Amino acid sequence: MKTLSVAHSPDADDIFMYYAIKFGWVDTGNVCFDNIALDIETLNVEALKTTYDISAISFALYPKIRNDYALLRTAVSFGEGYGPKLVKKKESTLKRNFKVALSGTHTTNALLFKIAYPEARIVYKNFLEIEHAVLSGEVDAGVLIHESILDFSDTLVVERELWDIWKELTPNKELPLPLGGMALRRSMPLLQAIHCEKTLIKAVDVAHTHQQLLSKMLLERNLVRVDDATLKTYLGLYANAHSIEMNDLQYEAIDTLFELGYQHGFYDQSIKAKDYLIPHEYEALRMR
């Protein structure tokens, strides 16, 4: 049996979308998945090194790893009217060159933030440390991500939603905000890659179908950092029916993100997401 490494974040949506495999609810065939949980920016950095066979990534990273990883169709998180939040202390005013804490240089929120605030002074921190950095005065503001957007100090206020930046950068379009996805190492044999992607799609589908039971098991085992009500809310945002397999609107949103990054000098070229998917049709052609 072939063992493959699968890296995902310890956040509730990633845990939820993977653990149908961990709990044995999905047949993985002749492949064994060895999973590891790391914060998203660490995953982005490790993807640049091609450390893991399959890895969660920020969508904004993908153009930089496109030659080494294929983009997966599943386990994706998009914002639809919501997303990361730029927060500051109440009554404070941000100068043009304000100091801000971001969760990592390769994240989607960092890309959008840099486009919107080119003069800001950026420091990078683990996303769990950002709220404290703002409260302590170490930074003037910080971009909260993951579960942090649902529960932060009432001494902080939202200066700007990253969703609003996305909308301003994509006028006359109604597109979800691409946040996180999955990528698979290109060196993997194609049939094995197809099998892995189909297994992960099944896992996300099963998790969504049995959300109540799976959530209960994750909470009982202390595998997520939130309570029952927050978990339900969070999964509704980032691990929902649209996470199972991407649709055309989501592909358009990713392409728009890549084009924005290219226009602002973050990428060497503009690419189309569908050009970097695993070609499932190979399986059928091979059997002819």
TrEMBL record:
UniProt cross-references to InterPro entries, sorted A to Z: Menaquinone_biosynth (IPR003773), MqnD (IPR030869)
Q: What is this protein called?
A: 1,4-dihydroxy-6-naphtoate synthase
Name the enzyme group at the top EC level.
lyase
Indicate whether Transmembrane helix appears among the record's keywords.
Answer: no
Q: Which reaction does it catalyse?
A: cyclic dehypoxanthinylfutalosinate = 1,4-dihydroxy-6-naphthoate + dihydroxyacetone
Question: What family is reported?
Answer: Belongs to the MqnA/MqnD family. MqnD subfamily.
Q: What does this protein do?
A: Catalyzes the conversion of cyclic dehypoxanthine futalosine (cyclic DHFL) into 1,4-dihydroxy-6-naphthoate, a step in the biosynthesis of menaquinone (MK, vitamin K2).
